[in-house]
Amino acid sequence: MLPAYAPGDRVLVYTWAYGHREPAIGDVVVLRDPEMSARWLVKRVAAAPDIDGRVTVLGDHAGSSRDSRAFGAVDASAIVGRVVWSSGDSSR
Amino acid sequence: MFRTLIDNGLRSGLRSLERVSAPATAHAHCDIPCGIYDPHLMQIAALSVVRMNQLIDALGDDAAKTKSSLSRYITVKEEHAEIVKRETRIIWGDYFKPDHLEKFPDLHQVTWDIMKLAGKNKQEVNAGAADELLAATQKFAEMFWASKGVATKKAPSNQAVGGELVVPA
């Protein structure tokens, strides 16, 4: 997710973010890896939920990101929450 | 100013919290979850560098033909030297962990040798340097497989270039 997020950055995740609204394009979210559920991923929402409630997520660093291009749209229930703050340098 | 205050406050608050409860890790990158690494390609690329030196050496006297072939051989030589560097960097940086250094104290040195030799092979037409590059990738491949407890052997490449590849026994 470079340049917005770098390895080691702390991110604060609002886990109730989608109780009252749907994931919107541009949101940065933490989700369960569809191919390895014990693992969490950070990705950006690229397409809002389709009629089945599935969300397309992409990494910012397209050349080296494993995301919906690899595992398809993800179930909205896989989304843990929305990133609302990061410890990274905001000027990066 | 206000933003900085909030950032600093959150940072120090989270630091305190981390002492009590470690944060979970969320991954942003591509690690293929099954972790596939293989030192085969770096050796093939090194062999290609060896081969380009052979072809350059064998170029005839036909000036027009030679000019075109020479530039193509040099391009391929440099591209493959770069592939050697890339493949080595991925395995060295992503696969090997600090624990491996105890068992393979030469790992950094061999990696560094590969980087330097690959650079030399880009700069020069030098069959000796190409052989050294291949030998260094073989050493690297031996360490890689040994770290996984896999025995190796040197097998003939069975290609026009000759040479050997380190493969699982």
What would you note in describing this structure?
The complex is a heterodimer of chains A (92) and B (169). With 92 residues, chain A is mainly beta. Chain A has one helix at 68-71, and strands at 11-14, 28-33, 36-47, 54-58, 74-75, 79-86. Chain A has a six-stranded antiparallel β-sheet with strand order 1-6-2-3-4-5. Chain B has a two-stranded antiparallel ribbon. Chain B starts with a helix and ends with a strand. The relative contact order of chain B is 0.14. Chain B is mainly alpha-helical and 169 residues long. In chain B, helix 2 packs antiparallel against helix 6, helix 3 runs antiparallel to helix 5 (107-123) and helix 5 (107-123) packs antiparallel against helix 6. Chain B has helices spanning 2-20, 40-57, 63-95, 100-103, 107-123, 127-147, and strands at residues 26-27, 152-156, 164-168. Chains A and B meet through strand 1 and strand 3 of A and helix 1 and strand 1 of B.
Helix content of chain A: under 10%
Oligomerization category of the chains in this entry: heterodimer
Report the average pLDDT across residues of chain B.
Answer: 91
Which series of helices and strands of chain A comes N to C?
EEEEHEE
Radius of gyration of chain B: 22 Å
How much of the sequence lies in strands of chain B comes to: 5-15%
Total of DSSP H or I helical runs spanning 4+ residues of chain A: 1
Per CATH, what is the topology of the domain at 28-86 in chain A? Umud Fragment, subunit A
How much β-strand is present in the residues of chain A? 35-45%
Question: Which strands sit side by side, in order, in the main sheet of chain B?
Answer: 2-3
CATH top level assignment of chain B: Mainly Alpha
The number of helical elements of chain B comes to 6
CATH-defined architecture of the domain at 28-86 in chain A: Ribbon
Report on the biggest sheet of chain A. 6 strands, antiparallel
Q: Assign the CATH superfamily of chain B.
A: Nickel-containing superoxide dismutase
Placed side by side, the strands forming the largest sheet of chain A appear as: 1-6-2-3-4-5
Greatest interface: A-B, 25 and 16 residues
**Distance N to C terminus of chain A:** 12 Å
Shape of chain A: globular
The backbone outline of chain B, from C-alpha atoms, is elongated
